[in-house]
Amino acid sequence: CSSSASTAATSGGAPQQSTVTSASSIVTSTSSTTGVSSGGCPLRITQTQGSSWVQGGRTMISVNVVVQNTSSKSVSSFKVRFAQTPDQIWNVVANSDGSYSCPSYTNIAAGANMQLGYNAYATAPLIVTILSPDNCN
Question: Is 134 helix (H, G, I), strand (E, B) or coil?
């Protein structure tokens, strides 16, 4: 997980925009979904769908995920779970319970964010649930 002091722009409920870029079924689209955790260290997740393509007769999408720490404390650990397991995921660690968390060296300062990404067989970003922001400092 890499963190950044910049904040993510969110547009919850923004309309999806899709553009077919070639006859080979490659589609570029953008969509955002947000989720907010509860508890002492609120986190906001914004997903932006990048490209999509057909692979083996099924649509696969690439999604960038921004996890923003909206609290006044730093967060050094959290867990998220996806409604469906991504086929490829980066900048997080897979846990034995099916959830994902940041590597142990991660620290998301107050107001900062970190990014991760995934590819999945889907037509829109996967539903993601924030299980726990832990270790609020």
Answer: strand
The amino acid that residue 137 corresponds to is N
Token pair, residue 93, equals: 């660690």
pTM for the whole structure = 0.72
Strand partners, 80: 100, 130
Q: How far apart are CA 5 and CA 134, in angstroms?
A: 19
Between residues 12 and 55, which one has the greater pLDDT? 55
Q: Which residues pair with 89 in a beta bridge?
A: 118
36, 122, 16, 69 alpha-carbon torsion, rounded to 10°: 20
Q: Are 130 and 45 a contacting pair, CB within 8 Å?
A: yes
- Rounded distance, CA 136 to CA 37, Å? 13
Rounded to an integer, what distance in angstroms lies between the CA atom of residue 78 and that of residue 69? 11
Q: List, for residues 90-130, the tens digit of each pLDDT value.
A: 999 999 999 999 888 888 999 999 999 999 999 999 998 88
What burial class does residue 41 get, using C-beta atoms within 10 Å of its C-beta: 0-12 exposed, 13-18 middle, 19+ buried? buried
Query: What percentage of the chain exceeds 70 in pLDDT?
Result: 66
d(CA 135, CA 112): 16
